[in-house]
Design goal:
Mean pLDDT: 97
Largest sheet: 7 strands, mixed
Strand content: 5-15%
Helix content: 40-55%
CATH architecture: Alpha-Beta Barrel
Strand order of the largest sheet: 2-1-13-12-11-10-9
Distance between the termini: 30 Å
CATH topology: TIM Barrel
Number of strands: 13
Structural class: alpha/beta
Radius of gyration: 20 Å
Shape: globular
CATH class: Alpha Beta
Number of domains: 1
Length: 365
């Protein structure tokens, strides 16, 4: 990546490598972005014609992102990368589901009406949504011109894709009524993940094979991804270990860098099973609606387990004001050290405040 919008890219890359490898760090990874940058040039941005255009027009998406880069500072370990998501969960669209375009996201309709009929769980190189999405990334890569990265999209995997196709309630019944068929379907989905992932990786990767993944702004040397199972809030720890963990473990074995997205208090009961996946590198904690942010002491029992397992932590800090954010990070560092953390903050109103927060955190390390 050229020094168009950041001038410390090699330093940032080295810090990400250290974080993934669980090696000593002088201070945590910190994603700080700030408004108020004076643009060097104004990028013409044609308005989107409708919601569908908002997701499918690669030229407009890249133009808007370039203007974002012109008006925002990327500080500390943040870096510019553009996302062209069909999702989360675009794997469902590549198979059989039709996307439902909404301003806030893309949703997928249930379309697998019998767990025994798994004919849709096959790779289709001619699927129009798959072909379109891949071409969008090729176009974005061309337009980015090495000024910023193009992210691998949030394909999603495992039980979340099966739940999207079957419907979460139906899948819960399937786990009881047809457990072997569920396992067969999950194995097919697991086998389908990498043909799609690898195609995107081939398009967006750097010369060294490194890449950026859209969810949670993670860059890594080699194949890097966020993995998840939000469906886990509907099942017991025993079912999670039996039906979900084997696929997650296999996925992590094929990735160079993996970060599990743990979503909400009802998912906490599955942390012990996740920590038993030796190949998993880190855990991203999403606290859930109306819950305190990642700096709250209520979540320390999660972090205790993650640190005992020798894995890294990704935490969103956003409660209160910038002074509160700095204090939350300081408390975490005093308890756990500075080696394991990636802190993401809201976008700052100005560069000066963002730099003050960064320096306050570094002072305690």
């Amino acid at each position: 990546m050229k020094k168009t919008y950041i001038d410390n890219w090699e330093h940032v890359r080295n810090r990400f490598r250290t974080w993934w490898n669980h090696e000593p760090m002088d201070y945590p990874l910190m994603n700080l972005r700030a408004m108020g940058k004076e643009p060097q040039k104004i990028i013409p941005c044609e308005p989107f014609t409708d919601t569908k255009d908002q997701y499918l027009n690669a030229e407009k998406i890249v133009a808007y992102y370039r203007m974002y880069c012109e008006t925002h500072w990327f500080l500390e370990d943040s870096y510019p990368s553009v996302s062209l998501n069909f999702g989360p969960g675009s794997l469902a669209v590549y198979l059989v589901s039709e996307p439902i375009f909404k301003p806030e996201s893309i949703w997928f309709g249930e379309c697998m009406h019998d767990i025994n009929d798994q004919s849709c769980l096959t790779y289709d190189s001619e699927n129009p949504w798959w072909k379109m999405h891949l071409e969008m990334h090729k176009k974005a890569k061309e337009l980015a011109k090495d000024d910023f990265l193009v992210d691998i999209p949030d394909i999603v995997e495992n039980a979340d894709i099966l739940a999207a196709l079957r419907g979460p309630q139906n899948l819960c019944y399937d786990l009881i009524d047809d457990p072997d068929e569920v396992k067969r379907a999950l194995k097919k989905i697991d086998d389908l993940y990498f043909p799609y992932y690898d195609a995107f990786h081939d398009v967006v990767k750097g010369e060294d094979g490194s890449c950026s993944f859209t969810a949670f702004s993670i860059w890594g040397p080699g194949k890097t991804a966020k993995i998840q199972c939000d469906f886990n809030v509907l099942i017991s720890p025993e079912f999670f270990k039996e039906f979900v963990v084997p696929g997650l473990r296999s996925q992590c074995q094929s990735l160079d860098n993996s970060l599990f997205h743990l979503d909400g208090p009802d998912a906490i009961r599955h942390v012990p099973a996740l920590m038993e996946i030796n190949e998993l590198d880190g855990l991203q904690w999403t606290c859930g609606a109306v819950q305190p942010d990642g700096g709250c002491e209520r979540w320390y029992p999660i972090y205790d387990q993650v640190r005992d397992a020798g894995k890294s932590l990704w935490i969103h800090i956003n409660d209160g004001d910038p002074g509160d954010w700095a204090e939350s990070c300081k408390r975490l560092i005093r308890r756990y050290g500075s080696d394991c953390f990636y802190f993401l903050f809201p976008i700052f109103e100005n560069k000066k405040t963002a730099e003050w927060v960064a320096n306050a955190i570094k002072d305690v390390c």
